[in-house]
Amino acid sequence: MSQVVTYVVSYARTVAASSSSRLHSPVAWSRKSVQEGYYDLEAGETERTPLLYVRDNGRYRAKSLHRTNDPNRVHPVALGLMVALLVFLLIGVVIGVYLLLLTVQRPWPVSHPFFLVERPAWWQYPVALEAATLDRLAVTNVIVLHTDSEDCLDQERCVRYLQNTERSCWAARRDHIPYNFLIGGDGVTYEARGWKSQHGFVDLPGRNTTLVVGMIGNFTDRQPAEVQYAELKAFITESIRRLSLSPQYRLHGAVNATRPSQDSTIALYSQLERWLHWKGFVARDQP
């Protein structure tokens, strides 16, 4: 009898211990149910992965919760396509700019570099330049004439000529040197009134549409030095590059209205008449 009581007590303890274990882990996977994809509420093994419960024909089917994808993450393929698109766009822009530059008309290939001495470098006096502003968008003409003076073959003599001419013009009529630019025998361009101001010749047409360039020297019977012609080409090209002269500009010489046939034979124009943009002579009302 005592053995029976002992057995019953031992069995009761075993059942109680088993019930306590299930209370701590009431839901677990059994190896068999894992293979079948169902929950086993009585299995002794625990499951650490979060699960979903799906009712299916009276039984609970287990579904694992998968981590959702990061919405800010860019797929490698999409990233590659974006980079390729940007590269093609950049190449297209470069090609477009190159083709645009090719459309800009150049009067000729320039091998002679452009040298410029600006006005403040040769005129350092308190009287500032005061002249009407030139409409840069309308500049379509270049008039070339000689100064009918002594040559200047170095910068010192050329600067002296500009200074003396400025003083003479100011003393005679309270005005500045009338040229926009002058080109010396040293192959240098000297800024007089520049690209932004109208020329000061009252007897030449188109004051608001014209740049007047003086070749320093007397070139009635002889041509200027080749370096002066080369610098004139470089000046015209630079003016176009600065958008201060239309690529479809017109090149003119100046003759006296009272003796046009005589002035047209001036040696200065014998070479200019063969240039592409040459359009003939304009008449001056005064000698």
TrEMBL record:
The chain crosses the membrane at residues 77-101. The keyword Transmembrane helix applies. Residues 114-256 form the Peptidoglycan recognition protein family domain. GO terms for molecular function: N-acetylmuramoyl-L-alanine amidase activity; zinc ion binding. CDD domains: PGRP (cd06583). InterPro entries: Amidase/PGRP_sf, Amidase_domain, PGRP, PGRP_domain_met/bac. GO terms for biological process: innate immune response; peptidoglycan catabolic process. Signal peptide: none annotated. It comes from the Eukaryota. The keyword Transmembrane applies. It holds the Pfam family Amidase_2. Keywords: Immunity, Innate immunity, Membrane, Transmembrane, Transmembrane helix. Belongs to the N-acetylmuramoyl-L-alanine amidase 2 family. This is Peptidoglycan recognition protein family domain-containing protein. It comes from Anopheles merus (Mosquito).
